[in-house]
Amino acid sequence: MYYNANIADVLLNETKLLANRSLGVLPGRVIVIAVDGDLTVKRLELVGLRAYLRASNPAYRPIPLEECESHVWGVATYVLQVLYRYGGIGGLQQLLCLL
Known about the structure:
LexA-like; mainly beta; 1 helix; LexA/Signal_pep-like_sf; six-stranded antiparallel sheet; Umud Fragment, subunit A; 11% helix
């Protein structure tokens, strides 16, 4: 899935995101959160006493958390992305040469 709202953070097809549920949800951290039943990845921001979710892509407006139902799944800690896709024996040999 391509996350258009996070285009600046480059989350592309088949990207794996690791979220840590034991970390505290603090302003400035990127979190995995269900908003009105839809899972999303956004940065948590505080403006005064109001909490917002901000996408990395400036084309998207911040989402005020007080106006929606939400549940935090965890704090995003790692992104795993395929850098080289190999196919067949030749591709495997090329991959092993890189190691």
